[in-house]
Amino acid sequence: MNNVGIVVENLDNAISFFLEIGLILEGRGMVEGEWAAQVTRLGNQSVEMAMMVTPDGHNRLEISKFLIPETISDHRKAPVNSLGYLRVMFRVDNIDELVSRLIKKGAELVGEIVQYEDAYRLCYIRGTEGILVGLAQQLNEK
Q1: Domain-by-domain residue ranges, the chain?
Q2: Of 91, 82, 83, 76, which Cα lies nearest the Cα of 123?
Q3: Which portions of the chain are predicted below pLDDT 70?
Q4: Pairing verdict, β 46-53 and 24-32
Q5: Burial of 43 (0-12, 13-18, 19+ CB in 10 A)
Q6: Separation CA 42–CA 25 (nearest Å)
Q7: May I ask the CATH architecture of the domain 4-68?
Q8: Phi/psi of residue 12, each to 5°?
Q9: What confidence score (pLDDT) does residue 81 get?
Q10: DSSP letters for 28-90
Q11: What is the tens place of the pLDDT at every residue in 106-122?
Q12: CATH architecture of 88-138
């Protein structure tokens, strides 16, 4: 996998949110031109993008703000059982501490932090713009 993409209204807020989770801003810039239109079939487009990378450098998150054309649908508040892309999950070291920090910055805990067997502590949160993110703290690492 090269990356997962998320479309947002406020790129700065989204970058700040994912920085708080622990991702690193790898780059930021504009995507425009005929080649982009050929890939997306959206015609004339202007997209501001940021590429974020996990601390291990293996996974990337592409965050996009479409300037042209405008976005046409919004499923940010969709429940977990909705069809299509819904969330991305991150492995974290201290789920309680991170959730506490994110809530102070406006994120909402969707349900509860739960433990799955002796393997993980997990939760879903809604961050900036209602983006659904899963957090997983691995227990008993070997």
Answers
A1: 4-68, 88-138
A2: 91
A3: 142
A4: antiparallel
A5: exposed
A6: 27
A7: Roll (3.10)
A8: -60, -45
A9: 82
A10: EEEEESHHHHHHHS--S-EEEEEEEE-TTSS-EEEEEEEEESPP----TT--TT-SS---EEE
A11: 999 999 999 999 999 99
A12: Roll (3.10)
